[in-house]
Amino acid sequence: MATQRILDFINTRRPNGPCMVLDLEVVRENFHNFEMALPDSKIFYAVKANPAPEILRLLASLGSNFDTASVAEVEMALDAGASADRISFGNTIKKERDIARAFELGIRLFAVDCVEEVEKVARAAPGARVFCRVLTDGAGAEWPLSRKFGCVPAMAVDVLRAAQKLGLESYGVSFHVGSQQTDLAAWDRALGDAKQVFDALAKEGITLKMVNMGGGFPTRYLKDVPTAQAYGQAIFQSLSKHFGNRLPETIIEPGRGMVGNAGVIKAEVVLVSKKADNDNVRWVYLDIGKFGGLAETMDEAIRYQITTPRDGDRSEPCVLAGPTCDSADVMYEKNPYPLPISLTIGDEVLIEGTGAYTTTYSAVAFNGFEPLRSYVI
Amino acid sequence: MATQRILDFINTRRPNGPCMVLDLEVVRENFHNFEMALPDSKIFYAVKANPAPEILRLLASLGSNFDTASVAEVEMALDAGASADRISFGNTIKKERDIARAFELGIRLFAVDCVEEVEKVARAAPGARVFCRVLTDGAGAEWPLSRKFGCVPAMAVDVLRAAQKLGLESYGVSFHVGSQQTDLAAWDRALGDAKQVFDALAKEGITLKMVNMGGGFPTRYLKDVPTAQAYGQAIFQSLSKHFGNRLPETIIEPGRGMVGNAGVIKAEVVLVSKKADNDNVRWVYLDIGKFGGLAETMDEAIRYQITTPRDGDRSEPCVLAGPTCDSADVMYEKNPYPLPISLTIGDEVLIEGTGAYTTTYSAVAFNGFEPLRSYVI
């Protein structure tokens, strides 16, 4: 999946050490695909997926909005040229002083999932719009969501009622179907829940206007995934089914889907060895691992596609591990990874589809290794 | 466990945001305890546990040696005042150019666990000393080691024979019984394995001189752990049992045991909420989580002691989570953590025993949050 531009960059610049190289042209294409797939939805790019200034500037120039997780991300989006009305503070867990700072910077759209958070927003961002996140079950997602964010739909009604009473504008409902979600029906279930909240509040005279359908749009790792267009059609059908001809304003928050397939990590084979002379298990150690940017291999959740200079030679499964002195720094062991048996110390490999959730996850200095370098071209 | 100096620092300086505060006096005390417990062993501090320059300078001045995982850590130890002969390059996974760089800097002691690594050391660090790491089963450790490092004892014989043939000095054997190891018998089993390797090579005329007994010395989190003295006695008995009156030179590599209990993380309660009105599960969100330095809560492995201003009030278990928009950023959920029911948004809590494996694990910028700040006092 590495583009020719990325391959040329790596071959010409020969960067030393592991690095992530991301092709902005792929981001541009992804943005247009989302626009075409869901022409009536506003796109809020999830900055946390990759906050590289070049990406934010490109998306700001294309008209994207931005979903942010912290004041620092709000500032990055503003620096990239987005006006404050194009930025949402989408983290449901915020310090009151951070809400106040975002409000000062002009932000007027905040996520909440409980009355306690509504109270903070009402004090620190009077009159702002809030949307309440509802829980979804996350079935079908590769990186499941647990119950950390959101509340049950019945409680969302209470939360938004409280917001309205405290002088906020109860603006809508959000959900997230789980990252890397390949089950198109997941959106349908969540939209049905959202409609319930709309209806319950309408009976009390509170008119919600917006459904934030979150992210979850997958990037292609090893398996084929539905196209943005397939998502768009399925989502539009569900919206019509639940909301009829009174469609709400909708938002989507692609992160991985916007940048995941635009980036590639270049890594190096540091060691290939076995643990005993008569052992069948081959260990392959790279110069990047779980603490150098591949945090999403935790529990072997995300399985990246790896390209080697020896592809085509006979392959055998191996345990794939990182370079640190930490025994937890192993990417694939329970489900070993097939790689060419001819793979040799010093070989350069490409870990594909690593444009999202890599550079910022990287440990700041674990084992003395520097954070993952990033080149946006 | 926070010392009065740490409490005074936090109360006087009022640092904003989460931070780790570490008391050097505790490190000094730990160093002396290790010295007294194992007077015949050389102490090689595992720099990766916490490479703060103040810690390295103190330990260098006390006469400590240093176990390093990368060229950057070698340079930090040199900068702190350690001479090259007091530094070991203890990572078994090294790029050949990093071995060469360390050799240039004067390093003459390298870890290996396979012939492929021996070949690199022989080319890049001719004549250097090597020790071979053998696998242990890790039973009894809280942070188990998997099979990432080391080889079986029979293969260690082959590895060290190859080293000698390639002009290196086959110097000894190392093992690591697993971090936070509370089973004193674990050292005995590993020392028995080491002796086997000594004996097999002696028959071929190769005399090993050193046993590197690694780290694994625990710091106190919630459970009581044996004292350094208890470890010392048990280890000395095992050494005598296996090696008789021809005791080898020994090395220990404490990391967590040297700095873990010297540090405390100050954090803030950002939100306390439930997911449904009739829910019994309380969620407590802090301004630090798995990606902000508490990586070792992965799989709920390490359970830190948490002190709150409301201790003494009635407690109930809660799910404890971090501040990022990542659903995996949950510290304790399967095994919920008891905290006072009166705990309130804005409360400051202390996460005790966090001097090791926190600051450097911290993500460089995930969700826009800055890495964990560190104050060494």
From TrEMBL, chains A, B:
It holds the Pfam family Orn_Arg_deC_N. Belongs to the Orn/Lys/Arg decarboxylase class-II family. GO terms for molecular function: ornithine decarboxylase activity. It catalyses: L-ornithine + H(+) = putrescine + CO2. It comes from the Bacteria. It is an enzyme of class 4 (lyase). One of its GO terms (biological process) is putrescine biosynthetic process from arginine, via ornithine. The modification N6-(pyridoxal phosphate)lysine is found at K48. PROSITE patterns: ODR_DC_2_1, ODR_DC_2_2. The active site is at C325 (proton donor). This is ornithine decarboxylase. Its cofactor is pyridoxal 5'-phosphate. CDD domains: PLPDE_III_ODC.
